[in-house]
Amino acid sequence: MFGPALTGFATGFSLILAIGAQNAFVLRQGLLGAHVFWLCLLCATSDAILVTAGVAGFGAITALYPALPRIMALAGSAFLFFYGLTRLRAAWKGDYALVLSGQSAGLWATLATGAAFTWLNPHVYLDTLGLVGAVSTGFPEQSEKIAFGIGAILASYVFFFSLGYGARFLAPFMQSAKAWRILDAGIAVVMFGLALGLLLS
């Protein structure tokens, strides 16, 4: 079972490694050191649910409802554009007194934003329900398929907790308002790019 599990881990890890909206948000919260555990748990568990559905063959739903991907793309694009505007506004104002003191939005607000980044992102469905589900078909035995799914799920937990808690190593470089302005401006550019990509997809 080690082979299928390793394949699942490598597949899952490679799909979430690229910088995206969700990763940028987890990184930002990690730098703040606020609600890191619960946010990472939310993101990884959401992935676990979607990977399980993908391995179980849930990807067929998009075939039954062909308009669903477009609806998700429009909703996701609107959310990413709005969040990009908030980060651009923060970078423009440059008022990071609360951030530099380590303050963040509340737990539930943070989790709600994290959930939106996860569940309103059409790419996560392509990655988990589509690609991971497709790769899992290469393992016809049920035990191998389960091992593959466990490996892919484990990759999400390793990645998000490593990103969230690993961000603290960058914290010494984020002790000035200028550094946070650069980070927020960069996040805004990523958000706008992702939003445009969803509209054009």
Layout of secondary structure:
Layout lengths: L1 H15 L4 H12 L3 H20 L5 H4 L3 H26 L3 H4 L6 H13 L2 H15 L5 H25 L10 H24 L1
Helix pairs in contact: 1-8, 1-9, 2-3, 2-9, 2-10, 3-7, 3-8, 3-9, 5-10
Strand content: under 5%
Report mean pLDDT, rounded to a whole number.
79
**Radius of gyration over all CA atoms, rounded:** 18 Å
Total DSSP E strands: 0
Q: Please describe the biggest sheet, giving its number of strands, its sense, and whether it closes into a barrel.
A: none
| Shape summary | globular
Describe, in plain words, how this protein is organized in 3D.
The chain is mainly alpha-helical and about 200 residues long. It is about 80% helix and about 0% strand. It is built from ten helices and no strands.
What characteristics describe this protein?
201 residues
Could you provide a short overview of the structure?
This protein has 10 helices and no strands.
